[in-house]
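Reviewers asked in the last cycle whether our approach scales beyond single polypeptides. To address this, we selected a multi-component target totalling 316 residues and predicted its structure end to end. The input consisted of the following lines:
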Amino acid sequence: MQSGNESKVYEEDLESHVKHLEKGLFQLARSLRKIRVGGEATPTYATGAGFWELVLLKHRHSMRSSEIASSLAIDISTVSRQIKVLEHAGLVKKEPDSNDARAAIISLTKKGEEIVDQLIKKREDTVRRALEGWSVEDRECLIRLLDRLVVGLDSDEN
Amino acid sequence: MQSGNESKVYEEDLESHVKHLEKGLFQLARSLRKIRVGGEATPTYATGAGFWELVLLKHRHSMRSSEIASSLAIDISTVSRQIKVLEHAGLVKKEPDSNDARAAIISLTKKGEEIVDQLIKKREDTVRRALEGWSVEDRECLIRLLDRLVVGLDSDEN
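The resulting structure, written as structure tokens, was:
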């Protein structure tokens, strides 16, 4: 009996944790949106979906449109349109893909690098202020568990 | 001397934590995007920005366009356009605001409620799978620290 009860309590805990976490992740995503929109007049590439392409290219250096699309779960026509806007603004450049004549390799220009660095610095400043007063242990714990959650979410196939 | 050194180590820790967390939050936001896009053919209101309005209305029941815009940090013309799409799809309804003849109160229809419940259930299922094998302590710790981070981010004024 006791182990049955314990397992039931565990399940109830799990359901309340799942609900709480799903709501918490929505609120977090909303809070993160506000960082990139910011208070001052913000260039469009920092408010819209172009933001994702820019930061992704910063992390990965150079990618094909098809790789960007699958990594961001955006359809390729949307990626192409956004890349065109970023290219027009001088933030990304296209080079021929030596392995595929129809494809192009996309990377940040020097100006693009500078803009992404500014966007990331702004996010880091906000995160630094949000962490004010936290113990080292709590900061380490959050980082460890967030990384683990991302691995779990990304390995999910359903 | 020693306390000076200790404080320097603490500062270096903080900077590495801030950088790690900023990157982790980007990856998390990307993973969360994939949940709502999903594998099967997804209706547009679940992939685009309409998703935010739907979930927000679920949490808050009824809101003015201006309240939705400030809560999501989206400009009001974009909110109005998205609300029109959701209204056309029968997911939200507008009612006159008795306090302001020019404004309208927006809320979910029964169909809208059902769609949001499905979207949230899908996210909860993904979160539940991602939490598989976690101890109760780790789950509680993540929830507590995420909530605290959201409070810190939302109270930030810069």
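Strands of chain B lie at 62-64, 92-97, 100-108. We regard this as preliminary and will revisit it once experimental data from Aim 1 are available.
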